[in-house]
Amino acid sequence: MPAAGGTAASADAGRFLCSGTSWDIAGPNLSLHLPSGRAEKQPLVPGTELRFRVLADNNGNEKFCLGSWQVNDDGVQSHTPCPGQAPAERGYQCSSCFIRDEVRGIHNSHRADSIPDALRRYLDQPHWLYVATFADGSTKVGTAADGRKQLRLIEQGAVHARYVARAGDGLVVRILEDAVTAVVGLQQAVRAGTKTAALARPLAATELDARNAEAAESVRSMLADLAIAGFRTADEVWEPPAQFRTVLETPCELYPCDPGSGEHGMVIQAVLGATALVQVDGEETLFAADLSRLKGRRLQYGPFRTAVPALQAALF
After folding, report:
1. Sign of the CA dihedral with 42 first, then 47, 53, and 56 last
2. Which residues make beta-bridge pairs with 275?
3. Closest Cα partner for 17 from 103, 108, 73, 84?
4. Which of 6, 32, 148, 276 sits at a 20 to 30 Å CA gap from 228?
5. 3-class state of residue 309 by DSSP
6. C-alpha 186, offset from chain centre
7. Taking the chain (316 residues) in consecutive chunks of 10 residues, what is each chunk's mean pLDDT?
8. InterPro entries annotated for this entry (predicted)?
């Protein structure tokens, strides 16, 4: 397993399938799986070196299956790795794992004629409706299960956010989400690349907070007029991790290469959502790197470096 502050020490520990970034109470991690399927985490603390190259298989495939998710009797999700880490066919899944996945229909569950028992167990818990704003002012509406109320927004990379409603279950909250999009006009997704690019030129914190507050108030006003049972409006401000401020307040440029291909060497300074503020060998400029591009990629750790394009380097 890669150690915090360094790269993997042995060849056996140097090859991983990456399932992207994740957060827990200790901070951000890079989620990795050994070829055997065993899960590993590399904490992305300041000073962590990420030196890797992205590997394709013999057929040129560069994106691989991340397995499937099941729902336990208590409604908690559990992960099953893909046997053989097959090439991805649908999103980040092969066809077999896609069929086995018990939560893949979650986003359309409120529109379905019937819901599998496993998915219903997950949905049968309180959910929150939130309004999130990102560094360029893009604002979206989203949902989070009660147990992931905080981590959901952290992993989304929100800069400012407010919870606007608490629903009794996951079906009601998704009906509310669709209503917000239809009436208020808030989108339900912001691309990861857009979030990262915005961090190189963020708007002022006061403006972002004002935009978020205005959007949240519009949503609450709309919800108050809905003839839907099973929820209550909320007015709660979300507090981001302290290191988000480091990323927002540190001048940087967009990482000049695609992390999802080629060779890279970067040293973590701080992380915001799935974006890492990184230093590159030989460059004084700091960069915002979109680590979500590593999701579904096979990585080999080693003494690799980022080759900053000559034209890009000349700009600095």
Report:
1. positive
2. 272, 290
3. 84
4. 148
5. coil
6. 19
7. 43 77 94 89 96 94 92 77 92 93 68 62 87 98 93 96 95 94 96 96 97 98 93 97 96 96 97 98 96 97 91 50
8. DUF2797
